[in-house]
Amino acid sequence: MRTLRMLPLNHVPPATICCSHQEHFSSAFAIHRQAMSAPPRPVPHPQAIFSLLPLNENAHAVIQNPSNYHLLSNHIDGMHKQQVVLNVGFQIGSAARYTLATLGRNGDIIVDGPNISRIQCSFEILPEYDVVMLYDESTSQTTKLFGDEATPFKPGCKRRVVIGERFNNIIGMGGTGCDQVQFEVVWHRANFKGKEEADHRIESPLQARTVDNVPTVVPSEIPTPDQWPPIQKPTIRHKALSVLGEGSFGVVYKVVDVDSGKTMAAKAISQPQNGFHAQQKDRLEREIFALSQSSHKHIVEYIHWYASPDKLWIFTALKAGGVDNLIDNQYFDRNSTEINELLDQMLQALDYLTYNGVIHRDVKPANILYTPLESAGSRFLYQLTDFGLCNSIDAARSIVGSPMYQAPEIQSQAGARQTCKVDIWSLFVTVAFALNVNQYRSRMLNLPAECVEVALQAARAPELQTIQDMAEIDPSKRPSAAQMLVKCYNGQGLTTPRNEIPIYPEDTFSMGFPTGFPSPQPPSCLAYASPPAVLNAHGMGTDTHNGLQVPQRQIGAPNRTTSVLRARSRPLPPTDSKRGPTQHGFPSCLLGDGESPVHPG
Questions:
Q1: Residue 243 neighbours by CB distance under 10 Å
Q2: Is residue 468 within 8 Å of residue 523, measured between CB atoms?
Q3: How far is CA 134 from CA 81, 216, 259, 387, in A?
Q4: Is residue 140's pLDDT more than 90?
């Protein structure tokens, strides 16, 4: 059979069509003729992602080309004016799976002209991130983006860039000014599922074509810090897609790298007119250093940071949401197994930080992100984020963190050196809050003493029996993350070597506390696979500490662990590790005098 050069079907000479395919092409030809004579659709096609609105005379000629009639629809613009547009989406049977459409003299959308290439440009889907990228396929590189929010193609790189609702939405092509044909991108569905919709795509004989080089989209990954040349200071050309959250120290956006199509979370910290003062600068340095130096499954992945003239940007991996969202949907109320996964994974994260000499100091549901998992076992991967308040173990002294989750020593021992045990208390409160123990989430807590009292009440609840030690008032009696992993999960996921986790003989330990330090009841259980033995009840009294009435158990009460956790039946008093703290050297420059920041590490 003679090979066909693809032309509009009404231009194909009948004699060139093989007899065995005559019926197929005749049917397609009839459909095409019907499409040519039909008026534009009253509304955009339901599978269209966006449309191309003509902006000049040559673009209107593209609209009027009979070969494009099947892609036309009406569109009402912001001025309530009806326009005819070209629909671009999964209804176009393009040759490549994730190609929405090609434009050019031989494209899915026919664009004629002496300065237009056979394939001038194409719109491609990145299914990993559900974004659309514009590729310049022209031999003379005459595709260009226009407008105030336009991002030009990056020199020396593959000529592609992400397009979005509020950026990169005016496209020109052809001629020395790349403006012979100009369209505006009008979005219909910014949120789409690229992989799912591509799987259900049906190729139409109208759009079947032969192209010498069908573009293959392979998203480029952002290089990790150790892959960057020492003198290179890379920046991420990004555009904000939506706001994920706001706090007193910045706004977190969902952003897209316009060069790779990768979506990320970016914290933007606005720079004061006179620059960051010393305390702000120190806090930013801590966050950047802690993130850049951390590499653990349960700590959110750090990507990059840089400073623009008015903001400092910190980029991390984008996740599905926060544990606070799951709590709002009462997810843990009906899923006791998942709360075990949350506890286990966060203990692993805290043990990693402790072993590396870092205190997070703001563990709470909003700072724990989740990612759905397809594999069996845990439904979610949990990761700790937001290290803006973190500190090295030998430097943490200030009163920081969210009051509800603050350990009591932060308030009662202001100025004293803090330990990793403040994070253990915060994780306990997070678990109690997630389970809504004693209607935790409905309690109105205004004072630090009230927060401590409610936490101690939750520690006496049967469902928190095994982890009750995490709510010890005296931080020296509170277990470390490593000790809790050994006790509850047989040490799986430890970073701290087993031989560095302290175990003391029975006669050195008393479950009582120094005068003025109340304690919750003995440990209990979080719905493990096999129910642990019920611990003996102990006499309860009350004590007064800084005006706070709290329950206290008798001095010398035994602290037995349950056989289901495969721990010794003898007491295992938790104490701090004897290992010296890791010393950190923070970046010497965060925002120099008019200088670009040097990437830490």
A1: 11
A2: yes
A3: 27, 13, 10, 36
A4: yes
Residue identified by tokens 């003299």 is 105
Q: What b/e string do you get for 59-73 counting C-beta neighbours within 10 Å, with b at 16 or more?
A: beebbebebbbbbbb
H helix or E strand, kind and range, residue 389:
none
Q: How far apart are CA 582 and CA 293, in angstroms?
A: 12
Statement: residue 307 has pLDDT above 70: yes
Structural tokens at position 37: 């004579």
Split at pLDDT 50, 70, 90, the class of 388 is: low
Quick one: tokens of 330?
């009462």
Residue entry with tokens 């009948």:
14
Count of Cβ atoms closer than 10 Å to residue 274 Cβ: 6
Strand, helix or coil for residue 53: strand
* Alpha-carbon gap, residue 321 to 244, rounded angstroms: 9
Element (H, E) at 1: none
Query: How far is 522 from 558, CA to CA, in rounded Å?
Result: 8
Tell me the longest C-alpha to C-alpha distance in the chain.
103
List 163's β-bridge partners, or say none.
132
Instruction: Name which residue leads in pLDDT, 201 or 341.
Output: 341
Q: Sketch out the chain's domains with CATH numbers.
A: 9-199 (2.60.200.20), 233-317 (3.30.200.20), 321-565 (1.10.510.10)
Q: How far apart are CA 404 and CA 427, in angstroms?
A: 11
C-alpha pair distances (Å), 36 with each of 51, 160, 329: 19, 32, 51
Q: Which two tokens stand for residue 6?
A: 């693809």
Angle, alpha carbons 45-47-50 (nearest 5°): 75
| Radius of gyration in angstroms for the set of CA atoms belonging to the chain, rounded to a whole number | 31
Amino acid identity, residue 568? Answer: R
Q: Is 538 left (phi over 0), alpha (psi -120 to 50) or beta?
A: beta
3-state helix, strand, coil in the chain (%, to 5): 25, 20, 50
126 Cβ contact list (under 8 Å, min separation 6): 98, 132, 133, 194, 217, 219, 261
CB 130 within 8 A of CB 193: yes
- Is 267 annotated as ligand-binding? yes
Query: How many angstroms separate the CA atoms of 351 and 358, rounded?
Result: 10
Place of tokens 């642990």: 532
Rounded distance between C-alpha atoms, residue 135 and residue 255, angstroms: 20
- Between CA 438 and CA 431 the distance in angstroms is 12
Going by their DSSP bridges, the two strands 358-359 and 321-322 should be labelled as: unpaired
* Digit-coded pLDDT (tens) for 157-204: 899 999 999 999 999 999 999 999 999 999 999 888 888 888 777 544
Residue 296: the pLDDT is: 92
Q: Which one, of 442, 428, 440, lies nearest residue 473 by Cα?
A: 428
Question: By C-alpha distance, which of 201, 205, 203 is closest to 193?
Answer: 201
Could you give the angle at which helices 481-489 and 421-435 cross, rounded to 10 degrees? 50
Q: Report how far residue 599's alpha carbon sits from residue 601's, in angstroms, rounded to the nearest whole number.
A: 6
For residue 243, give the nearest of 270, 268, 222, 271 by alpha carbon: 268
Per-residue model confidence (pLDDT) at position 378: 66
Q: Cα–Cα distance between 183 and 178 in angstroms, integer?
A: 12
- Which residues are bridge partners to 160 per DSSP? 135
pTM of the complete model: 0.66
Between the alpha carbon of residue 472 and those of residues 147, 479, 514, the distances in Å are: 60, 8, 12
The first and second tokens of residue 202, run together, are: 């049906």
